[in-house]
Amino acid sequence: MKIRSILLHTGLTLGVLILSWLLAEVVLNRVFYHFERYPSFPGQGVPFVIQTLEFKIHTIENRQGLRGPEVPEKEPGEYRVICLGDSFTFGMGVEFPQTYPMVLEELLRRDFPSVRVINAGGGGAVKNRYEYMLSRGLEFDPDWAVLQIYVGNDFYDSMAASPAAESAAQKSADPGVPLLTRLKDWVREHSAIGRLLWHAMTRHDWAQKLLFKHNLRYSNRAIYLKEYPRMEEELVKLHGEYLGKLRRLLEDHGIGLTVMIVPEKMQIFNAEDLTDELYDIRKPDRLIREDCARLGITVMDLLDAYRDVPRKLLKRLYYFQDMHWTPAGHRDAAERLARLLEREWAAAGGSAGPRSAERS
Fold it and tell me: Residue 125 above 80 pLDDT?
């Protein structure tokens, strides 16, 4: 009887624990946001909807591989600006007319009616933008290019192009890491409690040091480390190499270039999560600016631009849960970019900008 009683109580306890866990999972999944992958493109010419808890947008990929209407043949006297970038340029979270390239066109046309801005936003890093210009972008005959770089993932999006970075990651990993990584990813993907515990754990320095030591990276946070592991060193080097290739390609075709750095939300709203002992929150921006200075590229770093903006206003520029800009964020970027381009063109003394196209 005593054994039977112990088994009964043990079973009841386990049952209560399991039911409590399941109830907590249901509640947390409803209360806390969990990112789900955006849907895949169904193909050219097929309209589709992208919807999250915060936005619903309609989009279509035209026959030129771009979002929105097809770009017509270039007219005499027309001045073209092509915007290259990732999902921020594409306009994830906003309708096509609200994307910063289209708002930029609207603003520039007030003084330069001949301007046409092309939204060539897509996925990937600077390497992908360079390859896009080689394969398709030059066909649009642009006069100027804006390259948008997102600090949050652009370095890591270069991983597939860097055998050295992948090799560094593999060499620095312990034998048990692949299994641990799969377990970590499974828990974070399927368990709200697991995600909550993970978030709590990664706020502590000891946990962060342990994760980086064993190559269990998370949320691309290693790009802010004061001392880079070998993988991050290789990715930063690759990023700079392809920025140089893109610069030379555009120069060879007489195309100007401006870089716009988009900060990650963590840099703006959660910098206190990254302790001064381990991290330098401005390091990736600084490295990009140094590459731009070396290559003679004008750069607009929005992390600097946002410094004087009240926090309350900054919160209107990004979605609360999603990482992308709201329509207000796109308009703010377009306004800043328009002012910068107008200054650049004015400083060129007529040798660049829409006025030069009108005279040719």
Answer: yes
Mark whether 1 and 64 lie in a shared domain. Answer: no
> Domain count of the chain?
2
- Per-residue pLDDT for 25 more than 80? no
Determine the structural domain holding residue 258 and report its residue range: 48-158+229-359
Q: Specify the amino acid at residue 292.
A: C
221-260 confidence digits (pLDDT tens): 888 989 988 888 888 999 999 999 999 999 999 999 999 9
Rounded Cα–Cα distance for residues 142 and 160 (Å) = 28
Q: State the CATH number of the domain containing residue 89.
A: 3.40.50.1110
**278: closest CA among 201, 207, 174, 198?**
207
Please list, in sequence order, all residues whose beta carbon lies within 8 angstroms of the beta carbon of residue 57, skipping any fewer than 6 positions away: 49, 50, 51, 91, 92, 93, 94, 95
Please give the structure tokens belonging to residue 258: 């401006």
Q: Give the pLDDT score at 81.
A: 98
What is the tens place of the pLDDT at every residue in 269-281?
888 777 778 889 9
**Cα(246)–Cα(255) distance, integer angstroms:** 11
Task: Name the pairing type of β-strands 144-150 and 298-301.
Answer: unpaired
* DSSP 8-state class, residue 271: G
